[in-house]
Known about the structure:
Blueprint lengths: L3 H55 L8 E8 L2 E8 L27 E5 L3 E3 L2 E3 L2 E8 L5 E7 L15 E24 L2 E14 L2
Antiparallel strand pairs: 1-2, 2-3, 3-6, 4-5, 6-7, 7-8, 8-9
Amino acid sequence: MSKKMPFLSRIAAAASKRLLTAFYILQFWLSKINAMKKMKTIFLLFIGITLSASVYAQTPQPRVSPPYSVTGKIGDATIVINYSSPSVKGRKIWGDLVPFNAVWRAGANEATTFKTDKDIKIGDKLLPAGKYAFFLVPSKNGEWVAIFNNVTYQWGAFKYDETEDQLRVNVNTVPLQVPQEELVYTITPRGFSLNWDKLSVFVPVH
C-alpha cells in the first residue's frame, strides 16, 4: 500500500496540473470572447453615432433669418426682391446692430437682390433691366443711400465693391406707427419699401 501512494499522488498531481492548465486556457479564451464582444459593442456604437451625425449634418437646419421673395408690378415692369428676414429680438437695430454710414446688405445672410424685367427709373436715375444686389447705407439724419450693384451673389457686404455699382440714389426714411419685428419688403405701384423695427425706407420707382 505504501508503494502505491506515491504513484497515486503523482497521478493526482498531474491531473491537477492538467485541470489548472485547462482552467487557464478556458479563462484566456473567455477573456478573448469578452474582449471581442466589447469591441463589437464599441464598433456598433461608433457606427451608430457616425450615422446619426451624418444624418444630422445632411438635414437642412432652419435659418435664423429665413429667406423670402416678393414680386410686384410697377408700371409695365415686374419686380422681384429676394431677401433674408432678420428679427429685432429686443436688440437696438439702427446705429448698433446695423451701423450708420456703412454699406449694409439690406437684410441678412446673402445680399438682397432686386430684379426688373424692364428699364425703370429709381428716383430720377435710369436702372436698366436686369438683376442687382441691393444695399443701403443708413444715416442718422434720415437720408439714406440706396445702391444697386452688378455683383448679384454676395455674402453680406463683406466683399462689396463700389466700382461695380450700377446706380446710387438718396432715399428717405419715415417712422413706423407700429414696430415691425421681422424685416419685410413691400412693393407698391410707386416703388418699394423696407420695413423693420421702427423705420420704413421707401425707394421711389417709375
